[in-house]
Amino acid sequence: MASGLVALLDDVAAIAKIAATSLDDVAGAASKAGTKAVGVVIDDAAVTPGYAVGFTPDRELPIVWKIALGSLRNKFVFLLPGALLLSAFAPWAVTPILMVGAAFLCFEATEKIIEAVTHHEGADAVEELALSSAELEKEKVSGAIRTDLILSAEIMAIALNDVTERPLMIQAAALALVGLGITIGVYGVVALIVKMDDIGLHMSQRRRPSSQALGRGLVKAMPVILDVLTKVGTAAMLWVGGGIVIHGLEHFHLPQIPHLAHAASEWAAQVPGVGAVTGWLAYALASAVVGLIVGAIIVGVVHLIPKRKKAA
User: Fold this and answer.
1) To 10 degrees, what angle do helices 196-204 and 209-251 make?
2) Average pLDDT, the chain
3) How far apart are CA 169 and CA 26, in angstroms?
4) Is the pLDDT higher at 96 or at 26?
5) CA-CA-CA-CA torsion sign (41, 45, 50, 52)
6) How far is CA 295 from CA 86, 103, 114, 290, in A?
7) Would you give the DSSP letter of residue 270?
8) What residues contact 36, with CB distance under 8 A and at least 6 apart?
9) DSSP single-letter state for residue 304
10) pTM, entire model
11) What pLDDT is recorded for position 148?
12) What are the angstrom distances between the C-alpha of 220 and each of 188, 212, 214, 276?
């Protein structure tokens, strides 16, 4: 009886060791995969606050919550099963899908830049004024969830690309951990950003002069912060999208453009003391230039060709 108990305890200990090893594998894979997707995460965090701004304060957090739930649904209902099916049956398709998503990011970023330069946003503003508050909220949430679907697909594809050699269960657990962690992190930051002005207003009404000054500073800073976030989000779309295109070209043995980007990064990395930073900035800039070129081509195809057909 004692020997049977000892054997059982040995089996339990062995299972525990296997489970601990698996958890370590999952955590390691998720950490590595999540790090690779950081550019898209920055983009997601920068883009999303714009969808919740302009509503009454009591609707801001519920809107962020709706978008966060939609993001989780995107990741766990559609993207995670799709990623695992790709890994199991068509791993060759991961890079082309990444490149298609990257091209869409480049297109969106380039279109935003063109709109900002030409100030061509009046029609959208008129359409929004024609909607009721509930209709506008529904439209904004739907738009945010659609944008999140693209960004989440990029995150999951980047993460999948880094764990394709692992067993399927490790892949599934790592992707789930990356998806959940990024969603909580991104929308936690977004909630903080959209409520920053309310926090500032509350602080400005306190008795201590230092709290009042800080609160007024937060309220005044919010328009600037949102404007900076919009620009950062657009830049992130370009450098992330362009970087994925560059990696895709390398994958398909088209080395000319990747070689130029890497050469620029290596040259910039020679700056004493800050070489790692300047090298990264040079590669990000090269990626953004590639992204801008790809985006401009797609904008031309989407907008100019239909106009020429109508004119004809």
Assistant:
1) 170
2) 79
3) 9
4) 96
5) positive
6) 27, 7, 11, 8
7) T
8) 158, 159, 161, 162
9) I
10) 0.73
11) 83
12) 22, 12, 10, 35
